[in-house]
Amino acid sequence: MDTIKISFIEDGKEVIVKKGENLLPFVKRYQKFHSSKIVAARFNNFIVELFRPLDINGKVRFIDLSEQDGVRIYQRGLLFVLKIAIKKKFPDLKLHVLHSLGKGLYCEVSKDGKTIKLTENEIKDLEKEMRSIVEKDEKFEKITLYKYQAFEIFKKEGMEEKINLFRYRKKKTIKLYKCEGFYDYLYGYMPPSTGYVDIFALRPYDQGFVLVHPDTTCPDRLPAYKELPKFSAIFLEYARWLKIMDIEYVYDLNEIITKGERAVASLILLAESLHENKISQIANDI
Questions:
Q1: How many angstroms separate the CA atoms of 196 and 214, rounded?
Q2: In 87-96, which positions are buried (b, 16+ CB within 10 angstroms) versus exposed (e)?
Q3: Of 94-108, 197-211, 235-249, which one has max mean pLDDT?
Q4: C-beta of residue 225 within 8 angstroms of C-beta of residue 258
Q5: What percent of the chain lies above the pLDDT cut of 70?
Q6: Fold designation for 70-226
Q7: I want to staple 212 with a disulfide (CB 3.0 to 4.6 A). Which of 57, 104, 108, 266 is the partner?
Q8: Is there a contact between 96 and 109 (Cβ–Cβ < 8 Å)?
Q9: d(CA 253, CA 135)
Q10: Rounded mean pLDDT of 121-146?
Q11: Is 228 helix (H, G, I), strand (E, B) or coil?
Q12: Tens of pLDDT along 158-172?
């Protein structure tokens, strides 16, 4: 039977395990060395998911929410839970994660390309659905598919933008995450299950809502929520500029580039015009 040796940096202990085992059985033992929830690990200085099978000897140090990498992993898990909740509660709506805002992420939903503003009660129902998914502690399953298989799933899930994006991908395979029968592509590492992302809140804001979650300054609780209207206004103006330039996703930019130098030059001129107009507005204010 093939075995590997794992050394834990937290206490210096070593264990021998079967090749192909993951780090989940050790999380509870090493949680006491961390002030916030463990969500992943560094194995030989490379980030690995807690459910990833290991096949070589190595040194392990667990990652919690006091590190930015841990917060990003937690955030991805929360976003997948949010997407699942929206699919269940509002199947006709599409989620848009627009930008960070304070200690959270500003999100909007749309239908047929038009932004839909949810009521406070609808946002409360959405948060309630998220908590129900978290309580079930459903696993995030990582699967590898050929591009054509992933495209079929994207089409079924209404994610045509991802089909357009991956059309430029040279690799033949795509790694997706699956949970409760729903699929998504998330660029980065994930926590093992929905039960790991149990600290969050949805706050109504402007035309959408803010998904508030722990950060490195408050890794074990929700940070104080503070609205930042001026900061948000800049991001929303940036989003309007992208709509004017007809660039909503990365693949839109790819499409323009493939059309040749003239199309790229036109885009640059439009972007410069928007910047000049903004500078003129600032000058008038002064």
A1: 12
A2: beebeebbbe
A3: 197-211
A4: no
A5: 100
A6: Threonyl-tRNA Synthetase; Chain A, domain 2 (3.30.980)
A7: 104
A8: yes
A9: 40
A10: 96
A11: coil
A12: 888 888 888 878 889
